[in-house]
C-alpha cells in the first residue's frame, strides 16, 4: 500500500470514529432520554377539550374507530368531525353516531369544482367550529389505545403549556412492509420526542397532537405553509413550539394506532407527501435532522473500507460493537415502552437502508409540484 493510500485509509478511519461518536451522541443524549423520561401531569386539571378529526371518504374507518374517540373517560369534551367532500357512506355513518353521541358535531364541506383545497382547509374549518381552547387532533383511521387517551393528553396543559406532543403508531400486521413502516415511525418518534424532552421541539404528528386554539389564531394559522399538502402538524409545531411551552406525553394508554399502508406504492406516496415539509423546517432543525442519517451512511461506508483494507480492524470492530450494543439496548427499551413489538430482529438491516430509502424519496420530490392543494 502506497503512502498516499495509507493517508486515504487514515482519513477514512478518522471519519469512521467521528461518525460513530455522532451516532452514539444521538442515541445516548436524545433517544435514551425517551426511555428515562417520566411524564409529570396533573390529573386534577381537566380542561374542556375539542377533538378534531378531518375525514374524506373515510366511512369505513369512521365506523370502526370513531366510537373509541367518542367514548373517552373524560368529563367535558366535544368531537368535531369535518366531513370534507366525501362521496362514500360517511354521511350515513356520521348521522347514525350523531343520534347516539350528543357531544359529536359534524362540519360539512361540500364539493365545489371551482374551489380545490388541501387538508389544511378542512382542519381550519374544524378549528373555527371548536368551542374550547384546548384542541386535540387525530385522524379518521386512528384509534386511541385506551379510554384514558384524552385525559393523558389534556392533563399537561397549564398556563405555560401550548403544545402536547403524543405518540402515534401504526397497527401491527403481517409482512415486512408493515414492520418497516412501524420501524420508521418509531425511529422518527425517538427523535422528535427525545429532542422535545431536551428542549428542542421541532415537530409533532397529527395522529396525536394537542395545542391551543388561541395560539393558532395569534400566529395566523398555517401562514406561509398553507399551500403545502402536508405540514398541518409538524410545520405548525416547528414554527411555534419552544422549550418552555411544549410537553410530551407517551405513557401507556395515551398512544394512538393508525391503519398502515397496505402496499408499497401507497406507502411511497404517503412517505413522499410527508417529506415535502422537510425543506421548510428551521435551519437549525434541518442540520440536526440531516446529521444523524448522514453520519450513519458515513459510518457504514467507512467501516466497509476499513474492514476490506484491514486497517486497525480490531479497533474498528470494537467501535462497531459499542455502537451496536448501545443501539440495540436503547431501541429495545423504547420499543417496549411505546408498545412496538417484533422490530428488534430487523433493526440492523433497516438501520442501514432507511437513510438511503428516505434520501431517494426526498430527492424524487425535488422540483415536483404535483401535490399542491391536494387533500391527501
Please give a structural write-up.
The structure is a single chain. By secondary structure, this protein is α/β, with parallel strands linked by helices. It folds into two domains: 3-35 and 284-342; 41-280, Spore Coat Polysaccharide Biosynthesis Protein SpsA, Chain A. 51% of the residues lie in helices and 13% in strands. It contains twelve helices and ten strands. The strands form two sheets. It has a seven-stranded mixed β-sheet, sandwiched between helices. β1 (49-55), α2 and β2 form a beta-alpha-beta unit. α1 crosses α10 (283-309), α1 (3-36) packs parallel to α11 (313-337) and α10 packs across α12. The protein is elongated and about 80 Å long.
Under CATH at level 1, the class of the largest domain stands as Alpha Beta
Largest sheet: 7 strands, mixed
> Could you say what the CATH architecture of the largest domain is?
Alpha-Beta Complex
Order of helices and strands: HEHEHEHEEHEEHEHHEEHHHH
Number of helical regions? 12
Structural class: alpha/beta
Q: Which blocks of ≥5 consecutive residues have pLDDT under 50?
A: none
- How much is the radius of gyration in Å? 22 Å
What best-fitting shape do the alpha-carbon axes yield? elongated
Secondary structure: number of strands = 10
Average pLDDT number: 92
Kindly report the name of the CATH homologous superfamily of the largest domain: Spore Coat Polysaccharide Biosynthesis Protein SpsA, Chain A
Helix content: 40-55%
Question: How much β-strand is present in the residues?
Answer: 5-15%
What CATH calls the topology of the largest domain is: Spore Coat Polysaccharide Biosynthesis Protein SpsA, Chain A
Terminal CA distance reads: 56 Å
